[in-house]
Design brief:
alpha+beta; 3-stranded antiparallel beta sheet; two-stranded antiparallel sheet; 5 strands; about 20% helix
Protein backbone atom coordinates (compact mmCIF):
# COMPACT_ATOMS: atom_id res chain seq x y z
CA UNK A 1 0.00 0.00 0.00
CA UNK A 2 1.36 3.41 -0.98
CA UNK A 3 2.07 6.04 1.64
CA UNK A 4 -0.28 8.99 1.85
CA UNK A 5 0.99 12.05 -0.02
CA UNK A 6 0.50 15.50 1.44
CA UNK A 7 -0.56 17.64 -1.50
CA UNK A 8 -1.52 21.24 -2.04
CA UNK A 9 -3.66 22.31 -4.98
CA UNK A 10 -3.97 25.94 -6.02
CA UNK A 11 -5.87 27.24 -9.02
CA UNK A 12 -4.20 30.28 -10.58
CA UNK A 13 -5.52 32.31 -13.46
CA UNK A 14 -5.03 35.95 -14.36
CA UNK A 15 -4.37 37.81 -11.14
CA UNK A 16 -6.45 35.38 -9.05
CA UNK A 17 -5.48 32.34 -6.99
CA UNK A 18 -7.68 29.97 -4.98
CA UNK A 19 -6.75 26.94 -2.93
CA UNK A 20 -9.00 23.99 -2.13
CA UNK A 21 -9.96 25.33 1.29
CA UNK A 22 -11.06 28.66 -0.18
CA UNK A 23 -13.13 27.01 -2.91
CA UNK A 24 -14.86 24.74 -0.40
CA UNK A 25 -15.63 27.70 1.84
CA UNK A 26 -17.03 29.69 -1.09
CA UNK A 27 -19.23 26.75 -2.16
CA UNK A 28 -20.55 26.29 1.40
CA UNK A 29 -21.39 29.99 1.60
CA UNK A 30 -23.13 29.91 -1.80
CA UNK A 31 -25.12 26.82 -0.78
CA UNK A 32 -26.13 28.47 2.48
CA UNK A 33 -27.15 25.35 4.41
CA UNK A 34 -25.31 23.09 6.84
CA UNK A 35 -26.46 19.63 5.69
CA UNK A 36 -23.48 18.93 3.42
CA UNK A 37 -22.25 15.34 3.32
CA UNK A 38 -20.68 15.36 -0.15
CA UNK A 39 -19.41 18.35 -2.09
CA UNK A 40 -18.09 18.33 -5.66
CA UNK A 41 -16.72 21.54 -7.16
CA UNK A 42 -16.03 22.13 -10.86
CA UNK A 43 -14.00 25.26 -11.64
CA UNK A 44 -14.30 26.99 -15.02
CA UNK A 45 -11.70 29.78 -15.05
CA UNK A 46 -12.71 30.89 -18.55
CA UNK A 47 -16.16 31.77 -17.14
CA UNK A 48 -14.80 33.08 -13.78
CA UNK A 49 -17.25 30.66 -12.14
CA UNK A 50 -17.26 27.50 -10.09
CA UNK A 51 -20.13 25.03 -10.09
CA UNK A 52 -20.96 22.75 -7.18
CA UNK A 53 -23.04 19.66 -6.45
CA UNK A 54 -24.09 19.08 -2.83
CA UNK A 55 -25.05 15.60 -1.64
CA UNK A 56 -25.17 14.35 -5.26
CA UNK A 57 -28.41 16.30 -5.69
CA UNK A 58 -28.38 20.10 -5.31
CA UNK A 59 -26.48 22.19 -7.85
CA UNK A 60 -25.41 25.81 -7.91
CA UNK A 61 -22.58 28.14 -8.79
CA UNK A 62 -20.56 31.06 -7.53
CA UNK A 63 -18.37 33.72 -9.10
CA UNK A 64 -14.62 33.62 -8.70
Amino acid sequence: MAAKVNAKVELQFGDKAYNEEQLVSMAKTAYGKKDIKNLDIYVKPEECKAYYVVNNDVTGSFDL
